[in-house]
């Protein structure tokens, strides 16, 4: 059955193949018939059709070739890109592998080194154990051998501590030498308490245990030997505490009071303490850097070695911070150096070196620090070294054009250029209240960043001085020369007070002593005028703190004034008014109120008017205007009598430019306050003409014309109408005065002759003047004709 089925399946496959061949032949024959039916035979085609067909085939072949070439080029590019990307990936992978290998090798080396150290330590410990085990097994019974074994163990254990032991031995040698020198003085002086009985070598660098100030003072009094090491140690602690307290307490307002106290301490002995305290305080509060720099500048004038030591330590701090990339410490050091350059304690060359170092390899932080440094000391560098500052700004411009730094830092540089364009306004080198040293007295130190710097750290540590008393005496003499006679006066006063106390204790007659003290108190006079200064301060603060004139008047009347002090109130009121930028009616109303209340104030303001007009040339224009308006208000409100104007004499010889301005403002304010009509009525009052003769003079035509012209020029010509009429009628009045003299017959002949000659002379004067004028006209006409 199986064979039959296989044979049948083979026959079926042959039949299918035959059918497929016959069907394919039929399809080809049918396709050929269709083509022939459409196009006919090739023999029937014309030559042109054949050519066109061949061209079409050629074009098609060319297109196929071009497409094939394009595909090949595209594939070639894709292959190259794949290869390139794969190469980059390979390189990236290789880099990462190399980095990882480096990290691994570094870790391996570190682990290997640690393993080696552990192995060596393990080997040493094993060797020690073996040696000790061998020794113990051998069982040395001899004491000499056991001691030898102990010595060998100690030597082996002390090998890794040789450096430390060597340093400790050196310190012990130095302390031993000092102890030997002062052994005799130590035996004589003994201090009570456990803190003083302890050995000096156990006190340490930090100063030992804290001792309260009262206890420290008591202990210093109990010491008899002032040259002992214990007493020196106590004075050292007291010096350190006082210097730290003064430096921490200093600011811009009290620096002038702190400086004498600082010079009262031994700055030669404690120069290291002073430098360390200044640096720590400046690091804690950089906003007070200019104050610390001013303090150092004053100390540098008297002790240049202190200023140089501080500058060296700050430069060393800057170099360490720059190497460690400690930005906070670097900013503090740079700011301190900048203000020392401003105070001219440090030379400007160190500033230029610092800027060159910061801008050599610019980073965001270094450029930021350099910009802050130039803001602090750029003003003085522009005066001392303009070319160097120009070079620094050119470097800033180059960094800005490179554009490799952050945008924020670029904006900082642009802001610095704007500050330079404004000539560093708002960034002065030294504030006025901190400009305490004259340029001639200042000593400038030149230190380079490339030099090797010795910070002298040993000055911060206590060391006994065998010549302690002599050095203290020398500094006391130096302190007297620096501070003057103040310290001597204080010492003398203290000694005098001590002597008086002793005498009072010894004397038995208390009544006689009291009488003597009363007599001494009666003889004392206050030449400093402290009470007067306090009174003026109270009046000034009351005037400035009041809301209106009524409150100020109420408060000022409450002040208890001694007889004769009323004048101070008027003077302070006038001073406050003159100090204002513009005149305030507040002061005029307050002065009016006091004049109305008490006639004493009215008289005092009259004296102030006379005094101010006599010194009017000393006042500025603004002060002059305010004072004139103040008195105009008092005159306009009748708080001040008008007869004070009698002191003003309005002539060309008796006035100055300042007095004319004062009179102008005074009368203009009166005309605005009263009006021109009322002012004219006041000035023409018959009862006050005696007081106004000096303002409207009638003694001389020249002075009369000057007064008329003055008031006309200031716009008040209306008040001079009477004076103008008087000037017009002056010749007629003169003639009227002369006629009765000429017509009198009762007089003697000599008198009549003299009067006739005078009258004829007076009549001949106008005739001569008229004839001379006619002659001049004729000469002038002749000249014109000739011309």
Automatic annotation (TrEMBL):
GO terms for molecular function: RNA binding. Transmembrane segments: none annotated. Residues 1-199, 481-528, 737-787 are annotated as: Disordered. Residues 25-51, 59-111, 119-184 have a biased composition (Basic and acidic residues). SUPFAM superfamilies: ARM repeat (SSF48371). Keywords: mRNA processing, mRNA splicing, Nucleus, Translation regulation. GO terms for biological process: mRNA splicing, via spliceosome; regulation of translation. GO terms for cellular component: catalytic step 2 spliceosome. This is MI domain-containing protein.
């Amino acid at each position: 059955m199986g064979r039959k089925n296989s044979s049948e399946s083979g026959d079926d496959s042959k039949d299918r193949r035959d059918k497929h061949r016959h069907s394919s032949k039929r399809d080809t024959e049918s396709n050929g018939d269709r083509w022939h039916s459409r196009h006919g035979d090739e023999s029937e085609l014309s030559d042109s059709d054949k050519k066109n067909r061949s061209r079409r085939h050629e074009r098609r072949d060319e297109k196929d070739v071009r497409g094939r070439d394009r595909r090949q080029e595209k594939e070639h590019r894709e292959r190259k890109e794949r290869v390139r990307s794969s190469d980059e990936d390979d390189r990236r992978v290789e880099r990462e592998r190399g980095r990882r290998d480096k990290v691994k090798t570094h870790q391996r080396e570190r682990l290997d080194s640690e393993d080696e150290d552990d192995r060596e330590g393990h080997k040493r410990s094993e060797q020690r154990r073996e040696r000790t085990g061998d020794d113990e097994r051998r069982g040395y019974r001899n004491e000499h051998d056991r001691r030898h074994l102990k010595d060998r163990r100690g030597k082996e254990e002390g090998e890794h501590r040789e450096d430390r032991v060597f340093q400790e031995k050196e310190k012990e040698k130095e302390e031993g030498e000092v102890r030997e020198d002062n052994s005799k003085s130590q035996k004589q002086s003994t201090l009570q308490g456990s803190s003083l009985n302890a050995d000096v070598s156990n006190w340490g660098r930090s100063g030992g245990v804290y001792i309260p100030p009262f206890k420290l003072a008591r202990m210093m009094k109990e010491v008899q030997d002032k040259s002992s090491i214990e007493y020196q140690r106590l004075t050292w602690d007291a010096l350190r505490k006082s210097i730290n307290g003064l430096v921490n307490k200093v600011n811009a307002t009290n620096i002038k009071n702190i400086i004498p106290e600082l010079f009262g301490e031994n700055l030669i002995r404690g120069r290291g303490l002073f430098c360390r305290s200044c640096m720590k305080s400046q690091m804690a509060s950089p906003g007070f850097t200019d104050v610390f720099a001013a303090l150092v500048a004053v100390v540098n004038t008297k002790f240049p070695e202190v200023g140089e030591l501080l500058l060296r330590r700050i430069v060393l701090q800057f170099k360490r911070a720059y190497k460690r990339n400690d930005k906070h410490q670097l900013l503090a050091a740079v700011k301190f150096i900048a203000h020392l350059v401003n105070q001219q304690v440090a030379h400007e060359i160190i500033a230029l070196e610092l800027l060159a170092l910061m801008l050599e390899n610019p980073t965001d932080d270094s450029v930021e620090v350099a910009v802050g440094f130039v803001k602090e000391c750029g003003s003085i560098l522009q005066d001392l070294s303009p070319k160097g500052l120009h070079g620094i700004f050119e470097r800033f411009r180059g960094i800005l054009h490179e554009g490799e730094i952050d945008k924020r830092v670029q904006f900082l540089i642009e802001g610095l250029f704007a500050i330079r364009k404004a000539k560093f306004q708002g960034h002065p080198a030294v504030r006025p209240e901190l400009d305490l040293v004259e340029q001639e007295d200042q000593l400038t130190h030149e230190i380079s960043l490339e030099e090797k710097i010795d910070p002298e750290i040993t000055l911060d540590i206590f060391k006994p001085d065998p010549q302690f008393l002599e050095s203290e005496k020398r500094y006391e003499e130096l302190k007297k020369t620096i501070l003057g006679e103040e310290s001597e006066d204080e010492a003398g006063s203290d000694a005098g007070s001590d002597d008086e106390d002793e005498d009072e204790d010894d004397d038995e007659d208390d009544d006689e002593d009291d009488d003597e003290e009363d007599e001494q108190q009666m003889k004392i006079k206050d030449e400093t005028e402290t009470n007067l200064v306090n009174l003026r301060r109270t009046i000034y603060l009351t005037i400035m703190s009041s809301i209106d004139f009524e409150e100020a008047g109420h408060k000022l009347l409450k002040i208890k004034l001694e007889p004769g002090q009323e004048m101070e109130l008027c003077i302070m009121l006038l001073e406050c008014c003159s100090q204002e930028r513009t005149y305030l009616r507040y002061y005029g109303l307050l002065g009016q109120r006091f004049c109305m209340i008490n006639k004493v104030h009215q008289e005092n303001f009259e004296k102030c008017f006379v005094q101010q007009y006599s010194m009017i040339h000393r006042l500025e224009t603004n002060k002059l205007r305010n004072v004139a308006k103040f008195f105009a208000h008092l005159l306009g409100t009748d708080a001040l009598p008008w007869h004070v104007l009698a002191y003003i004499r309005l002539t060309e010889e008796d006035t100055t430019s300042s007095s004319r301005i004062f009179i102008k403002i005074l009368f203009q304010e009166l005309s605005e306050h009263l009006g021109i009509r009322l002012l004219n009525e006041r000035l023409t009052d018959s009862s006050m003409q005696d007081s106004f003769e000096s303002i409207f003079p009638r003694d001389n035509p020249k002075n009369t014309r000057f007064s008329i012209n003055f008031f006309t020029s200031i716009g008040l010509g209306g008040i001079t109408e009477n004076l103008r009429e008087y000037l017009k009628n002056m010749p007629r009045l003169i003639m009227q005065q002369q006629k009765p003299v000429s017509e009198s017959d009762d007089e003697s002949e000599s008198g009549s002759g003299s009067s006739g000659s005078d009258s004829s002379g007076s009549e001949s004067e106008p005739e001569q003047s008229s004839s001379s004028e006619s002659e001049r006209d004729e000469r002038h006409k002749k000249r014109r004709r000739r011309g």
